[in-house]
Automatic annotation (TrEMBL):
Keyword terms: Signal
Endpoints of the signal sequence: 1-27
Origin superkingdom: Bacteria
Lineage: Bacteria, Pseudomonadati, Pseudomonadota, Alphaproteobacteria, Hyphomicrobiales
UniProt name for this protein: Outer membrane protein assembly factor BamE
């Protein structure tokens, strides 16, 4: 028969090993090296180039901030903060005599933010870039999509009208 102390020790070791396994499944803070860029965010880098200032105001609204970049034009910044509902899982702390405590917590889906930067040269989009804590576990720049998705659709529609694919 196994003594109660040994049984408790074995149980704690199993719980500790389970905690180690769970912690190895946590997504890293920076997933940029292991995930691909969101398709819409990537499309915006190409499809928004050439849109006029008025076009961008129509599809993305007015920028949160602007900065003069000298000979490189102007940089328009659209700031977006995302506060998602968090899921917190707390593992109770277990302590038995001289054996160390086992416990902890796991936070899933914390918020983030995105600064979408659009460089304007001669009144037209020359470049689109993203900055901030804007990655999701499976997609880079995913928190920026809501800023540019309307502009990608707008640019595609304008392209179709110009090429005659859609009649007015």
């Amino acid at each position: 028969m196994i003594s109660p102390r040994i049984r408790t020790l074995v149980c704690l070791l199993v719980v500790s090993a389970g905690g180690s396994i769970l912690s190895s499944c946590v997504a890293p803070d920076d997933t940029s090296n292991v995930t691909k860029e969101d398709a819409t965010a990537a499309a915006a880098r190409k499809e928004m180039v050439g849109l006029s200032e008025a076009d961008v105001r129509m599809c993305a609204g007015f920028p949160t901030a602007t900065a003069d970049a000298g000979g490189s034009g102007q940089i328009w910044t659209y700031q977006r903060t995302v506060q998602r509902g968090n899921l917190n899982v707390v593992i109770p702390t277990l302590a038995v005599g001289a054996i160390p405590t086992v416990g902890g917590s796991l936070n899933v889906d914390p918020g983030g933010y995105c600064n979408t930067q659009i460089r304007m040269v001669d009144g037209r989009v020359a470049e689109v870039a993203y900055a901030g804590d804007n990655n999701l576990p499976n997609n880079r720049d995913a928190l920026c999509v809501s800023t540019v998705d309307g502009c990608v659709a707008y640019a595609r529609q304008r392209h179709q009208v110009r090429t005659g694919a859609i009649s007015r």
